[in-house]
From TrEMBL, chain A:
Residues 29-62 have a biased composition (Low complexity). Keywords: Signal, Transport. GO terms for biological process: maltodextrin transmembrane transport; maltose transport. One of its GO terms (cellular component) is ATP-binding cassette (ABC) transporter complex, substrate-binding subunit-containing. The lineage of its organism: Bacteria, Bacillati, Bacillota, Bacilli, Bacillales. Residues 29-66 are annotated as: Disordered. GO terms for molecular function: maltose binding. This is Carbohydrate ABC transporter substrate-binding protein (CUT1 family).
Automatic annotation (TrEMBL), chain B:
This is Carbohydrate ABC transporter membrane protein 1 (CUT1 family). One of its GO terms (biological process) is transmembrane transport. It comes from Paenibacillus taihuensis. CDD domains: TM_PBP2. The chain crosses the membrane at residues 7-34, 68-89, 101-121, 154-174, 195-216, 269-286.
Amino acid sequence: MVTSSWKKASIGIMITALTSVALAGCGSNGSNTSSSNNSGTKNAADTTNSSSSTNTSSSSTNETKKGRSDVNFWYLWGGTEGENMEKLIAEFNSSQDLYTVKGLSVPDMQKVIVALSSGNGPDITDNFSSNTASYAEKGILEPLDDYIAKDNYDLSDFVQGALKSGQYNGKQYALPINVNFYMMFYNKKMFADAGIANPPTTASELLDDAIKLTKVNDDKTLQVMGFPDFPLVYYVNPMSFALGGDFATTDGKLTPNNPGTLAAINLMKQYRDKFGVDNITKFNSSAKYLDATDPFISGHQAIRFDGPWFGNTVKNALKIEGLDYGIAPLPGPDGQPNLAGGGEVSASTFFIAKNAKNKDGAWAFMSWLMSKEAMTKFNTMFGNLPARTSVYNDPGLQNIPDFKVFADAATNANLKSFPAVSVQTEYAKLISDQFELAVNGKETAEQALKEADEKAGSLK
Amino acid sequence: MRNTLKGLLFASPWLIGFLGLTLYPIVMSFYYGFTSFNAFQPPKFVGLDNYTELFHDDLFWKSMRNTLFITLLGTPLNLAFALLAALLLNLKVRGMAAYRTLFYMPTIVPIAASTLLWIWILNGQYGLLNTLLSKLGLYAPSWLGDPVYTKPSLLIMGVWAVGNVIVIFLAALQDVSAALYEAAEIDGASTLRKFFHITLPGISPIILFQLIMQLINGFQYFSQAYLVIGSSGGLNGAQIGGPENSLLLYAVYLYHNAFYYLKMGKASAMAWLMFICVGVVTWAVFKGAKKLVTYGGE
């Protein structure tokens, strides 16, 4: 009796041991890559020796090898975008006879990271600028400065914020292929119907207009959301910057409790109080982003913060016609026109793995892809804004929906990037968590940000 | 001696697999729990730092509370529902095979597919469930948007897919000796009495087994939460724990630590804490169930 129950117990323990510990090693099946990226990076060290004057062609300086060597390139894109990437790869492969780039669509960032950690990852891959600092700190990324210097590679015409977002501790670890930031999209018909002539330029105008534009159902749920409350992640950081805030001081101290974030919370809170937090969260959790039922596309949202990919997705991927919208900079703080046109800038970046087997080949491909010609092709196909401003007059790019308005806004000095600290991911989550508590009315804005300040000090 | 060797040789595929793919990772994760390790640079021994860091981590406790909610409410709910369903499916009615298939069907649907389906059903504004609730004049909550309702939503999804539990209960029910029921009927026992004095004791070992499996599943709850979070917060990378972190379950947070923050040491420490928790709970259940469980033949 005693032995048999002990046997049962030990079998039970065995089962629990195997199943629970196995969890730590389990892989991922996430789908965590969307075309968006809500934070960029910024470096304390502003200048590097990276900009140089002459433009040379990429791999020609490498010594000639016998035969071609393989370069493994994994990219996060899939579907049509993946096919576009393959076209560029084929073009690179036929343009020279040293390297053969082998492309593989791996739309799962965690999978790429796990593969890299075991040394079986790609030589070169794409990522988001919001990860540069964290990856560089962990030794995942190969510094590019030597390659840039060797080739005398010209980086002078890159959007500075985007280029900086690939830097950490004064070194260039990744190069941006595009530049992303948010602008205010507004439904022209709804504005006309509500008798509003111009898009709001300040915080208080935004609130007034949003209230006028909102339509409520009989049960108090929202029929039309006037405020850019959805998607929430496109509001938190961009609006904190737009209202004059910053998430770190120049010497690297984290400042989640800044006037911009406080103003952004209070602004949203006023709108939510007016129509009910419950009704807003119900609207948000029911909404799908960038498909045919997207509230802005289906006429249920009047103002939306979104990026340069929006127009291209609507017109060329979703094939939706007749959506008449205008684009304006994010509203700035009241009475401070010098801060207008601010927001958060980030980028899609490419990096070479520190444990890459073919670093020269990876750099050859990267430098080709980042050349004016290839970068223009890439962005024409993907409908994005190139990181090099010198190509903005290219006729092909003008066909991208909303290209001009984003290109004009890209050089605004009030666009800032998220601080390039090694705890970037944790810090971004902390901000968004505290922001959510405040706008859901669980804590006051002051309380939530004070807590954020305390917790930011102990992030590691 | 030669036979032993031969035997080991035949068992070697499993042995090697077990040693290399199960035992080794378990031992290593124990070691990593005492190191600072990001999967790229060599692990650095830090003693109990990971554990003390966890005990001071608000999100760790939050994830613990979320998981306890799911486990402590989900386990009895699933067991009660499954037992009830099994009792009904054990009746002698025409077309029973069809009913049984119906109840088991949800289990065959892949978790990802069924979760996406439920996300639509539970959609706050256009969902089937809320349309029904508001037609009845009842409060229609924001199931997946309001932190109060997100975990109950997971419980609803869980109850829908207890086919496996039902099947095992059903088999156990059919194993209870018909002679006992017959004897009870002759003595004039009511249906309720028969249930409490014959059925329940008869299937008590199976209930214990199911209880433990459900508890372990509850503690390790991951997939549905991860998918629900991904579908609503999929717009960005790591800021995801559902509304106000209400869906940040223990296993989800462990995953975040391992693969978003690349804190393998902290994640390993979490795995071992969970292991200890599950071990203690399982032991306690065995201990407590001793008097309640009757094994036939003993």
